[in-house]
Amino acid sequence: MVGGVRQTPRLIVWGASCGKEITCLRVMKFLGECCFPQTRLELVTNTKTPIVAFEKLEPADLASALGSLNGLHGRVTTVQPKLGGGYERFLGWALREIADAKNAGSGNDCERTSVNAVMHARRSLSCLADQYLQRDGFLFCRRPPREADQKADILVRRGVFDELETESLSRAINERHTVEHEYKTISLSKAQDAVQMVRATVQNSVARSSPYNSPALFGTISGGSSISGGNVKGWFHGWSGSAFLLVTTVQSPWAGIIVPTNETEAVARRVYLEHLLPEQLLEALSIAESLLRDEGSLDCTPNLWHARLHSAGLLA
After folding, report:
1. How far apart, in whole angstroms, are the C-alpha atoms of residue 161 and residue 225?
2. Is the pLDDT reported for residue 230 higher than 80?
3. Do 93 and 189 belong together in one domain?
């Protein structure tokens, strides 16, 4: 308040191609490179000091605690690292082996490259499935899914794969079993069919949902983060309602519900993923997504996300 006039928070965006001021009635939920890559951000507002009281949340109570929330506004995702060389590399190898098999035409070289193509395609699919399971936190759960059918069930229920694709994939996997466990060769035509099934599934899944953007926040925490000269900083402007957090980019991943008591104080009810069963996490994610009241989403790098959590008192 200046001279009896209410001052509107201002966001000044600086970058190679921008240096303009954006006036907003409400501070944007998350700022920094999450929203404006390769920019320096300056908020002309005062930061606040959060006071967070952590409480243990029993795994069996997570779903009911989430269900008691009225609605969640806004969503943030954070980037997960690739598993190994990434599913893309194995799929590329499979396609290259098919091309080599076609060039060979017949004989030992054709059989060898056809077998290699099926093996690489299966590795690509396995890597992608595990990437999704890591993204959503299932690999950190108590008794994480190990068998292919367990993984497929979770990914179908998460909307990553559809049931028709999994039926087609089972045929492709059978071809791989023939090669790996029965020590048989495979014809070029069958190898082509298997690789094409895997490639179509991979492309459709990635088009539906990025395997690298991990759900991190359902709800709003006012503030932001930025990076300049290698220095990362975050700032906090207050709680803007209840929120659900899924923190998978730390040494001990956890899920939690933030319940504010006023603008700066909040209770964080937290459960570590190592205590959650995959079914419990699956239900929690489904409830959180059903509570979203808008489709807005921001992507954030892990270091900027950690700075935001630290500034909000949610990370030590």
Report:
1. 34
2. yes
3. yes
Residue 170, CB half-sphere, CA atoms under 13 Å: how many?
A: 9
Residue 4 forms part of a structural domain: no
Residue 90 has pLDDT above 60, yes or no: yes
pLDDT of residue 124: 93
Q: Which of 135, 193, 196 is nearest to 160 (CA)?
A: 135
Taking only the tens place, the pLDDT of each residue in 7-27 is: 444 333 322 222 333 333 333
Residue 175 shares a structural domain with residue 217: no
pTM for this entry:
0.81
Domain enclosing residue 273, as ranges? 10-80+212-311
Q: End-to-end alpha-carbon separation of the chain, Å?
A: 34
Q: Do strands 40-43 and 51-56 pair parallel, antiparallel, or not at all (unpaired)? A: unpaired
Gyration radius (Cα) of the chain, Å: 24
Average pLDDT taken over every residue of the chain? 82
Is residue 59 a contact partner of residue 143, using CB atoms and an 8 Å limit? no
For residues 169 and 125, what is the distance between their CA atoms, to the nearest angstrom? 9
Angle (nearest 5°) at CA 133 between 131 and 139? 110
Contacts of 271 (CB under 8 A, 6+ apart): 56, 57, 58, 59, 62, 254, 255, 256
